[in-house]
Predict the structure of Palmitoyltransferase.
Amino acid sequence: MKECEYRQIPPGIAGPVPGTVASSPPPAAGLERSGTTRRPRRKWEVFPGRNRFYCGGRLMLARHSGVFALTLGLILATSGLFFAFDCPFLASHLTLAIPIIAAVLFFFVISCLLQTSFRDPGILPRATPSEAADLEKRIDSMGTSTYRPPARTMEVVINKYVVKLKYCYTCKMFRPPRTSHCSVCDNCVERFDHHCPWVGNCVGKRNYRYFYAFILSLSFLTAFIFACVVTHLTLRSQTDGFLTTLKTTPASVLELVICFFSVWSILGLSGFHTYLVASNLTTNEDIKGSWSNKRGSEFANPYSHKSILTNCCAVLCGPFHPSLIDRRGFIQPDVGTPASPKSEIPSFGAKADTSMEDACQDFAISCTA
Ligand SMILES: [Zn+2]
Ligand SMILES: [Zn+2]
């Protein structure tokens, strides 16, 4: 029965961080031997999540960012074709305002996309080995009277509603409200909305407003290009004939096809996120039905301000939050690296993090049976 109890995590148990070389003997924490001099290492170099860093840690992206390159390529290609093949005709036959409006929208879309993709979405730093050990000790002290491992949840009251906090076995901490662990990036993200492969990043507390501005402005840009290309083809076909126009303007036809097939999904996504912003909900909460009305009014969304305007202001115009992971900071030798998921005790095998709580309960039941 003793074997079923939780063991504490010793402070020095965290193994080498994936992606770093563990030499024997290992170099002192925070220092890397390079020839005869030791270079202090920055936190992004040993960051435990599955992210890529660029420009000395200033920019970050999820590891698999191929779809992000596709998004960027599609926007650049469609807009480039529009500026090259449609704008000269429309500017000379209609008005110069068309290329100007398109250029403003285009630069706004690209800047919002890059802000969403390369920003820290609101990652919470993992607990250091000593913090994890301290929390393990406190959890152990809560459950010494029974043979069952203590439940790894904590209840807090938010706006008179009881919200349950779950323990993250990877980050070794109780997740704050609205925080979820992204299985793609392997990080706990505050006000986690979803992981978006199209922008190559999680969408969370620190980049949601840019993501919303991106999809909304992209809807306008796509609809604008579509309408302008239709106008261009209609004007040309009045003099050249419809079939001749299609043959002589293949770039415009390609833009028309791309815009036609993408505008519906982008408009739908913008509408869905407008509903989420107005209700102060996240995609994660909406999919899980966390505050669904069918469960009774006592489960209403505790974060809603009960007013659409206030919710919109709170989500889109709230204060900017600083990044908590300090990825450009130097590693302090006495703090050590954050707890690695490889040092998990007890071990339940390589299960996904979301099922770890369930695995914990199953494990406890099988031990007491
Ligand atoms: Zn986590
Ligand atoms: Zn993610």
